[in-house]
TrEMBL record:
Source organism superkingdom: Eukaryota
Name this polypeptide is given: Vacuolar protein sorting-associated protein 35
Keyword Cell division recorded: no
Any single GO BP term: protein transport
Subcellular localization(s) per the UniProt record: Cytoplasm; Endosome membrane; Golgi apparatus, trans-Golgi network membrane; Prevacuolar compartment membrane
InterPro entries, per the entry: Vps35, Vps35_C
Record key words, sorted: Cytoplasm, Endosome, Golgi apparatus, Membrane, Protein transport, Transport
Name of one Pfam family that matches: Vps35
CC terms in the record's Gene Ontology section: cytosol; endosome membrane; Golgi apparatus; retromer, cargo-selective complex
Organism annotation: Citrus sinensis (Sweet orange)
Family that this chain belongs to: Belongs to the VPS35 family.
Function, as annotated: Plays a role in vesicular protein sorting.
C-alpha cells in the first residue's frame, strides 16, 4: 500500500509539473510579445496546479519552487509594464479578476511587490491588504506556502529604519505588525494540520508538520532582522505577542519548536533583559512539551554569552539571572509532576553549567543547584536510565572541568550526595574522572579531612558497592583502576609530619576495606608513602622516640607492620616479604635495631610458612641476603642469628645449582668492606669451599663448590 501511494504521488507530481511547464511556456510567449492579458491568463492557469491536495508537503514544495521561479519572471515583466506607462493600480485591480482564489492571491502578491516598489501607495497599506487577503486560503498546506511566498517577496520592502520605504506615514510598528500577523495566521494553519484526517494517520501528519515548520519559523527570523525592533520594542510588544500565540495554540509540536526559535533567532542580550517574561511562559506550556531541551538551549546560549566577554557579567548580576532561572526550573518541575528524571537532571546540569560560567566564584550557587538535584533524586533510588546517568556524569564533571581543582569541588557539600544515586559502574567512571583530573592538574591534597572526603567520592574504586562482585569486571580494566588509585596515593603529600601521618592513617582506613584483590595494588604505595614520612622524621634534631602523642619513626613502623600483615589473607607472601625487607632497610637508616630485627623476623616467618614454590624461594632468599648485607644497625649477636638463618635456608633449596649460588651469596655476609666488625675471612672461606665436603666438579663463578650440603657447619 505504501509503495502504491508513493508511486501515485510521483505520478501526480509529474502531471502537475507538466501542466505547470506547459502553461509557463505559453506565459513566456505572451511575455515576449508584451501581451498582458494572455500573460495573466496563462500564469493563472499555471498557478492553478498549486491547488492540488494530493501531494505531501515535500512533493508540494517541489511544485511550489517551480512556480516560484516563474513568478519571479512575471514580476520582472510587471516592472517593465509600469515603465512603459501601465498603471500599477490598474494592474493591481486587474489580477484580482482571476477565476480561482489561489492563483489570484499569488498574482496579487506578485503585483503587490511591484506596487510597493513604485511607492505610489504607502507600503503599510499594501502589506496590510495582502496579509488580510491571504486569509482567503484556509487549506493548511496551500495557505502556508502562499503566506511563505508573501513573506519572501516582502522581506526587503518592509518600512524599517533606514529603509527606502520608511516614510512619514510608515513606521517600524507597521512592519512589525505585518510580520506578526502573518506569523499568527501561519501558525494557526500549521496547528490545524494536526486535527485533519483520521487518528491512525497521526504519525504521518506529525512528520508532514515537521517538514513545514521552517515556513512558520522564518517569520520570527524576519522579525529579528528588523532594525527598528530594539530592546524596548521587543520587550513591550514583540515577545508578549509571540508568546501569547505560542501559549494559546496549545499544540505540543508548535510550542516546542517556536520556543526554540525565539531562543535561537533573537539576540542574547534581549533574552537576558526579558528573562522573567520568557521564563514565565514555560509553566504554561503543554505537559508533553520537551521543556528540558528548550530551557537547556536557553541556558547554553546565556552561558556562551557570559563566556564571550567579562564586560557582560554585570548585566547577569543586575537582572539576577541565576535566581530567575533557578525559580523557573523549580516551577516547571513542580508543574510537571510526571516529568521523567532525565528531564529534571538535564535541567539542573544546564543550570549548573550556566552558574559556573556566570558566577564561578559563587560556590554556594553551585551547591544550591546540586542540592536541588539531590532533592529531586531522593525519591528515585539508584538511577537505571542510562541517559539520566550520563546527565549525572555531566553534572558532576562540570565543576571539575571549570575549577580543575578537586579541593574546590570538595567544598560543595551536596556533591557526594549526588554520587549516591548512580550505580556502581557509573560511580567507578566518575571516580576515574576525578583521579584523572587530580593527576592532570597535579592537585595537592594536603589535609586528612580532604583526603577522607576524596576517598569517599572514589569509593567505587576502593571497595565493592551494592554487593557487586569484582570477578565480573574485566581484568585489564580492574588493573587500570587500581593503578590509578595507587598513583593517587603516591601524590598525597604534606610537609607537616603530623598531618602526613593522619593522611596515611586515613588512606589506610579506606584501602583496608577493599578486599583481598585490591590490597596488592593499594598497600605498596601506602607503604612507600609511609617510608617517605620516616625519612622526613630522620632529621638530626629529631628524637626517634619523640614526645608523647607525636609522630615518630617507631610509630610509623608499627603502623606499617600492621598494614603489611593484611597481605597474609590475600595471599601475597612474596609481596609482603619484599615490603618487610624495605621497612627493615628504612629502620636500619633510622638506627632502630629492634624494629629492623622484627621486620626480618616477619620476613623469615613468611619464607618458612608461606613461600613453597622453589622459584619463589630462590628469589626470596637472594632478596633477604642482599638486604641483610646492606644492614649496619645490627649487633654481632643479632647479625649472626640472621646470617646463619639465611645460610641455612640457602642450603635447603631444592636444586643444587640454586643451593650453590645462594650459599656463595651468603659468604659475602661475613665480609663487608665498610664494616670492620664484619670481616671474618675464615668463616667466609669455610662457607665457600670447606674441604670436609665431598666435591663434584660444578664450576660456579670460578669456585669449586660442594654438591652435598647436608653436613654444612658454621
Amino acid at each position: 500500500m505504501m509503495v502504491d501511494g508513493v508511486e501515485d504521488e510521483e505520478k501526480w507530481l509529474a502531471a502537475g509539473i507538466a501542466g505547470l511547464q506547459q502553461n509557463a511556456f505559453y506565459m513566456h510567449r505572451a511575455l515576449d510579445s508584451n501581451n498582458l492579458r494572455d500573460a495573466l491568463k496563462y500564469s493563472a492557469q499555471m498557478l492553478s496546479e498549486l491547488r492540488t491536495s494530493k501531494l505531501s508537503p515535500q512533493k508540494y514544495y517541489q511544485l511550489y519552487m517551480r512556480a516560484f521561479d516563474e513568478l519571479r519572471k512575471l514580476e520582472m515583466f510587471f516592472k517593465e509594464e509600469t515603465r512603459r506607462g501601465c498603471s500599477i493600480i490598474d494592474l493591481y485591480e486587474l489580477v484580482q479578476h482571476a477565476g480561482n482564489i489561489l492563483p489570484r492571491l499569488y498574482l496579487l502578491c506578485t503585483v503587490g511587490s511591484v506596487y510597493i516598489k513604485s511607492k505610489e501607495a504607502p507600503a503599510k497599506d499594501v502589506l496590510k491588504d495582502l496579509v488580510e487577503m491571504c486569509r482567503g486560503i484556509q487549506h493548511p498546506v496551500r495557505g502556508l506556502f502562499l503566506r511563505s511566498y508573501l513573506s519572501q517577496i516582502s522581506r526587503d520592502k518592509l518600512p524599517d529604519i533606514g529603509s527606502e520605504y520608511e516614510g512619514d506615514a510608515d513606521t517600524v510598528n507597521d512592519a512589525m505588525e505585518f510580520v506578526l500577523q502573518n506569523f499568527t495566521e501561519m501558525n494557526k494553519l500549521w496547528v490545524r494540520m494536526q486535527h485533519q484526517g483520521p487518528a491512525r494517520e497521526k504519525d504521518k501528519r506529525e512528520k508532514e508538520r515537521s517538514e513545514l515548520r521552517d515556513l512558520v519559523g522564518k517569520n520570527l527570523h524576519v522579525l529579528s532582522q528588523i532594525e527598528g525592533v530594539d530592546l524596548d520594542t521587543y520587550k513591550e510588544t514583540v515577545l508578549p505577542r509571540v508568546l501569547e500565540q505560542v501559549v494559546n495554540c496549545k499544540d505540543e509540536i508548535a510550542q516546542c519548536y517556536l520556543m526554540d526559535c525565539i531562543i535561537q533567532v533573537f539576540p542574547d542580550e534581549y533574552h537576558l533583559q526579558t528573562l522573567e517574561i520568557l521564563l514565565g511562559a514555560f509553566p504554561q506550556l503543554q505537559p508533553s512539551v520537551d521543556i528540558k531541551t528548550v530551557l537547556s538551549r536557553l541556558m547554553e546560549r546565556l552561558s556562551n554569552y557570559a563566556a564571550s566577554s567579562t564586560e557582560v557579567l554585570p548585566e547577569f548580576l543586575q537582572v539576577e539571572a541565576f535566581s530567575k532561572l533557578n525559580n523557573a526550573i523549580g516551577k516547571v518541575i513542580e508543574a510537571q509532576a510526571d516529568m521523567p528524571i532525565l528531564g529534571a537532571v538535564t535541567l539542573y546540569s544546564s543550570l549548573l553549567t550556566f552558574t559556573l560560567h556566570v558566577h564561578p566564584d559563587r560556590l554556594d550557587y553551585a551547591d544550591q543547584v546540586l542540592g536541588a538535584c539531590v532533592k529531586k533524586l531522593s525519591g528515585e533510588g539508584k538511577l537505571e536510565d542510562n541517559r539520566a546517568t550520563k546527565q549525572i556524569v555531566a553534572l558532576l564533571s562540570a565543576p571539575l572541568d571549570k575549577y580543575n581543582d578537586i579541593v574546590t569541588v570538595l567544598k560543595l557539600s551536596n556533591y557526594p550526595s549526588v554520587m549516591e544515586y548512580v550505580d556502581s559502574e557509573t560511580n567507578k567512571v566518575m571516580a576515574m574522572v576525578i583521579i584523572q583530573s587530580i593527576m592532570k592538574n597535579n592537585t595537592q591534597i594536603s589535609t586528612a579531612d580532604k583526603v577522607g572526603a576524596l576517598f569517599e567520592l572514589i569509593k567505587g574504586l576502593i571497595r565493592d558497592l551494592d554487593g557487586a562482585a569484582h570477578d565480573q569486571v574485566d581484568e585489564d580494566d580492574f588493573k587500570e583502576e587500581q593503578n590509578s588509585v595507587a598513583r593517587l596515593i603516591q601524590m598525597l603529600q604534606n610537609d607537616d609530619t603530623e598531618e602526613m601521618f593522619k593522611i596515611i592513617c586515613t588512606v589506610r582506613k579506606h584501602i583496608l576495606t577493599g578486599g583481598p584483590k585490591r590490597l596488592p595494588f593499594t598497600v605498596p604505595p601506602l607503604v612507600f608513602s609511609s617510608l617517605k614520612l620516616v625519612r622526613q622524621l630522620q632529621g638530626p634534631e629529631e628524637n626517634p622516640f619523640g614526645e608523647e602523642g607525636s609522630t615518630t619513626p617507631k610509630k610509623v613502623f608499627q603502623l606499617l607492620n600492621q598494614t603489611i600483615e593484611t597481605l597474609y589473607g590475600v595471599p601475597a607472601p612474596e609481596l609482603a616479604l619484599r615490603l618487610y625487607l624495605q621497612c627493615a632497610e628504612a629502620a636500619n637508616d633510622s638506627d632502630l635495631e629492634p624494629v629492623a630485627y622484627e621486620f626480618f623476623t616477619q620476613a623469615y616467618i613468611l619464607y618458612e610458612e608461606e613461600i613453597s614454590d622453589s622459584r619463589a624461594q630462590v628469589t626470596a632468599i637472594h632478596l633477604i641476603i642482599g638486604t641483610l648485607q646492606r644492614m649496619h644497625v645490627f649487633g654481632v649477636e643479632n647479625r649472626d642469628t640472621l646470617t646463619h638463618k639465611a645460610t641455612g635456608y640457602s642450603a635447603k633449596l631444592l636444586k643444587k645449582p640454586d643451593q650453590c649460588r645462594a650459599v656463595y651469596a651468603c659468604s659475602h655476609l661475613f665480609w663487608v668492606d665498610d664494616q670492620d666488625n664484619m670481616k671474618d675471612g675464615e668463616r667466609k672461606l669455610c662457607i665457600v669451599c670447606s674441604n670436609t665436603w665431598p666435591v663434584q666438579s660444578i664450576s660456579i663463578l670460578g669456585w669449586c663448590l660442594p654438591t652435598h650440603m647436608d653436613d654444612i657447619s658454621y
